[in-house]
Design a protein that fits this description.
- The protein is built from one helix and 14 strands.
- The protein has one helix at about 75; strands at about 5-10, 15-20, 25, 30, 35, 45-50, 50-60, 60-70, 90-110, 115-125, 130-135, 145-150, 165, 175-180.
- The longest helix is centred in the middle third of the chain and has 4 residues, at about 75.
- About 20% of the residues are buried.
Length: about 220
């Protein structure tokens, strides 16, 4: 329908109310009004309206509603992501340099705001006779290290703003960086994502030809 209902901001929470005759669904059941848990509240509430799926997201600039269309052409015509061939040499055992205490790091994002996240240390490695380092951050409640980086392939070969990589927690003063697992952030596929961007210290001057390549829509 042209109008389905209203999202209501009530203090620091969001509720949704449907118009008469409109069926909004939650977990397989229709409803008329309910308070919604955001993606930062644990179990996120997902609304269904036909082919649309909606959730409330909380970001540094405030609250927003994220809408997904299950019948969107970009989803329907998705042709997969090209990757570099698996290269065992890009599975690197890096030296781990811990920070005590963890260091706050400013992480910019594509919507122009900056979030402060905590970095527990840095990973140092050598490649082609040169030394490099990457500084991961920890997401809320996570134990895995989250690396947001870009490199000399960022642009034509890989997604221009950079890629993501997760690794297990350091062990014995080492951390494994398997760049074959480097992947595109959500903003590589849609202009409506709110992806974090690499901090300056994570801009590598070497080409990391491993992991996912730049996504190109069919016909491009």
């Amino acid at each position: 329908p042209a109008r389905a209902g209203s999202f209501l901001l009530e203090g620091d929470h969001v509720s949704v109310e449907s118009l008469p005759g409109v069926s909004l669904w939650h977990q397989g059941s229709p409803f008329e009004r309910m308070r919604l848990r955001s993606d930062q509240d644990g179990a996120t509430d997902t609304l269904a309206l036909g082919e649309l799926r909606m959730i409330v997201i909380r970001r540094s600039k405030g609250l927003a509603v994220r809408v997904r269309d299950l019948a969107a052409p970009a989803r329907r015509d998705f042709a997969g992501i090209e990757c570099y061939p698996i290269d065992p040499s890009w599975r690197i055992e890096a030296r781990w340099v811990p920070y005590d205490p963890p260091k706050p790091v400013e992480i910019p994002n594509v919507v122009g705001s900056i979030d402060t996240m905590m970095s527990p240390g840095r990973a140092e490695f050598e490649r082609e006779g040169r030394r490099f380092s990457l500084e991961p951050v920890l997401e809320d409640g996570a134990t895995e290290l989250f690396f947001i980086f870009k490199d000399a392939t960022s642009g034509e070969e890989t997604y221009p703003p950079g890629r993501f990589l997760y690794s297990a927690a350091p062990e014995g003063g080492k951390v494994v960086l398997d760049f074959n697992r480097a992947y595109n952030p959500p903003c590589a596929f849609t202009a409506f994502a709110t992806c974090p961007l690499p901090p300056p210290q994570n801009e590598l001057t070497i080409g990391v030809r491993a992991g996912e390549k730049r996504y190109r829509e069919p016909g491009h």
